[in-house]
């Protein structure tokens, strides 16, 4: 960083708007309050949940924005004591009040992990699995320098670590016991306890016709069980027990996705169930309906036939589905013929 020491550069970044009312929070962290919070400061006991928007800014002349959660429409949630991957956030959050807005200038050692954290948060905001595309590394961040994170700006920041400014807006602070934790923040026991409650809530929402909300509850319950299952040896008794708990939730999730018209998700999830439990009638029937919806007529007929052979009581429902499929195929054939006639005319 030029000819001076790293510390000198951090203390005087170009055009960084840190006013004289700066508070030093230990080595390498400085704070400036821009909006004073009105609520009393929390004790921030372990388990306290802070919901906030963050804007990450480079220490350059343009104050280049790296991330801004407010533009994504989803704030960050952090639970004190859960050892978040970027410890400096937990440290600075504990100096703030609800409603407060403040800027924090953090030296490089505090933000070395930020590119990886940012990648995960971006992928979550995009609805993707934050773990996809990552490879296992045992030697720390230095070994990641030759591995792309999938975002050019984060790759640059990873190769050239530098101080960062975090503009934090505290939206809400909730004391332990006043909220339900997200799956990632729960202990194993809390996850097991949450699953039946989430299942029940999902069922009630489904009965009320709130399909998207029900799907979210089922998905959350599945996430709890999946995180526990990852700790078990595949095929072991504990792994199988968890899988048997996941399956009905996944079938309920698929029912919601059928109603939402997301047929390929249904095909994927039902196939994953049938790969393990080939005689699962509900999975066969739902996959048959999904195949029918995307014009896979022979696959739909095969799944429906298999379902009826396992549960003859489904025959009337299957007959209805096959009749509707035949009618839709006939309509499509007529439409295609008319379209081809118009082309040749």
TrEMBL record:
Residues 47-100 form the PPIase FKBP-type domain. It holds the Pfam family PPIase_AIP. InterPro entries: AIP/AIPL1/TTC9, PPIase_AIP, PPIase_dom_sf, PPIase_FKBP_dom, TPR-like_helical_dom_sf, TPR_rpt. It is found in: Cytoplasm. SMART domains: TPR. GO terms for cellular component: cytoplasm. GO terms for molecular function: peptidyl-prolyl cis-trans isomerase activity. Coiled coil: none annotated. Its EC number is 5.2.1.8. It catalyses: [protein]-peptidylproline (omega=180) = [protein]-peptidylproline (omega=0). TPR repeats lie at residues 281-314. Keywords: Cytoplasm, Isomerase, Phosphoprotein, Receptor, Repeat, Rotamase, TPR repeat. May play a positive role in AHR-mediated (aromatic hydrocarbon receptor) signaling, possibly by influencing its receptivity for ligand and/or its nuclear targeting. Interacts with RET in the pituitary gland; this interaction prevents the formation of the AIP-survivin complex. PANTHER family: AH RECEPTOR-INTERACTING PROTEIN, ARYL HYDROCARBON RECEPTOR INTERACTING PROTEIN RELATED. This is peptidylprolyl isomerase. It comes from Pelobates cultripes.
